[in-house]
Amino acid sequence: MAESGVPGAHGGAGLEGLALPFARADLHLHTNASIFKYFKAANSRDSYSDPDEVYRLAKARGMDFVTFTDHDTVDGCLRFRERHPDYDDFFVSAEIETFFPKTGHRIHVNVFDLDLAQHAVINRKRRNIFDLVEYLRAEGLLYSANHMFQSYRFRQAPESFVETMLSLFDVFEVKNGSMAYQHNDLVEDILTAAKRKKGSLALVGGSDAHTYPPVATVYTMAPGKTWKEFLESVREGRCLSWGAEMGFTGVLGDVYENLTKFYRSVTDFKNPEFTRAEKARHFLLAAATLPINLSGVPAAILSLNYAKQIALSRGLQRRFSRKGTPDGP
Asked: Do 216 and 26 touch, CB atoms closer than 8 A?
């Protein structure tokens, strides 16, 4: 597991001889700029966390550098930077949803230290993972594959899938705070074995926090006095992940906390951001979903997804244990 000699660390190969402590950053954080794409009509969000409070909590919990990885947008990062131009410990990032064109398999990719113009191109290319990665490499951007098996549905053989991912990515999220530990263990085992063979992989971690409590509970450690030096260390694979998963009850609590905040938001009729007609639409759509949410459907869906995640991870772990992990390209 931890090859750095630091108990509890993940992905530490290549860190021998470096002095501790390293700088720390939670490389997977969400704010209220993350929209819930399946219910946009009601202005539903994946997170209701205020960026300033997320930043404050991350710093209070020991993070040296802070970034936000909102879904398919850098708006939250750019607004935060405009409000705090003197913060030299903050950098712009985004979590991009992309797809394998033949199978439709979804992959989430964190892209770090990008600007608005680059994000505009990324948004045009993200429907095809191969086009997206080609552009990211051409721009020299640092990017990571997040929660690798979250959406995996055997649309291609797992060995082939891993080999393809290894051909596309050099940085992998091996510890995600909102995923089951079985998933994280599977990804860590596969990527640690691949790193020994390939020798150039970076294994990182992030909380994937959508509410305040998980912020900075999982993070990445790497040498660096500035965030640019920190990211360069990650690029070189001189990093490790640290922290603990939220567990099922923690994730369930987050789901219902965000639902509560959603219903509060649609009853804020003084919000100047929307017209009276838009507020009425949001309220009516929210009211229509209230019986579904009160009946426990979100808990049932999460339970099924969590059970699938655990079953898939255990099944793939057994499969790779018998056959061995892929060598990669």
From this structure: yes
SS (H, E, C) 75-122: HHHHHHHHHCCCCCCEEEEEEEEEECCCCCCEEEEEEECCCHHHHHHH
- Work out the end-to-end distance of the chain between its first and last CA atoms, rounded to an integer number of angstroms: 23
DSSP structure class, residue 222: E
Q: Please tell me the distance from the alpha carbon of residue 67 to that of residue 26, in angstroms, as a whole number.
A: 7
CA distance 300 to 315: 22
User: Rounded to 5 degrees, what angle do the CA atoms 144, 150, 155 make?
Assistant: 105
pLDDT classification of 19: cutoffs 50, 70, 90: low
274-284, pLDDT tens digit by residue? 899 999 999 99
CA distances from 300 to 37, 142, 296 (A): 20, 37, 6
What H or E segment, with its residue span, contains residue 125?
helix 116-125
* CA-based nearest residue to 144, from 238, 261, 28: 28
* Coil vs helix vs strand at 128: coil
Contacts of 114 (CB under 8 A, 6+ apart): 74, 92, 93, 94, 122, 139, 141
Instruction: State the pairing for strand pair 90-99/106-112.
Output: antiparallel
Contact 107, 132 (CB under 8 A): no
Would you give the DSSP letter of residue 313?
H
- Placement of tokens 């970076």 in the chain: 202
CA 145/CA 166 separation, integer angstroms:
10
* Domains, the chain, ordered by start: 23-250+300-323 (3.20.20.140)
Token pair belonging to 46: 């994946």
Reported as a pLDDT band with limits 50, 70 and 90, residue 199 is confident
Residue 215 identity (one-letter amino acid)? V
